[in-house]
Amino acid sequence: MAKTKWVLDSMHSEVQFKLKHYVISTVTGYFKTFEGALETENEDFSGAIVELSLDVNSIDTTQPQRDEHLKSAEFFDAASFPKISFKSTSFTKDGDDYKLVGELTIKDVSKPVTFAIEHGGVAGDFYGNTKAAFEVTGKINRKDFGLTWDGVTEPGSIVVGEDIKLIASIQFAKQA
Fold it and tell me: What would the mean pLDDT of 74-81 be, rounded to a whole number?
């Protein structure tokens, strides 16, 4: 079977992250600019190759001051490392869903990560395009990727949690 290429439809996709703030509340942020592609030889997407790239300068937590801190050298260092990238090493069926394994690169650190994938299905749109949708979830430890800034308050509360939940709703458009 020939390879089928799919391109990420950013208008119908979102990439977000969640982390604990002072251990008691959750902060949610988004990457507003990203791109990606999927290539498969199978109708069921097993064995697909997935690549994603996030623009660090597009980070948005709805608080401009916090966003600037996240872009600074204390966190993502967007000036030196403007992209976060992911390239899959395997995409396998896991019951009705999938398991996606690959290399995640943040700053100059690349590590293997695993994401759970829920396949939303394939459908045609009003313009004759074929779309495939996926819900992606996973968790990483920010310190594994060199995001080591820590703030501790006077009474000893940790300002930023180490675990980051990643959630993405991704839609791909099949290429002719």
Answer: 92
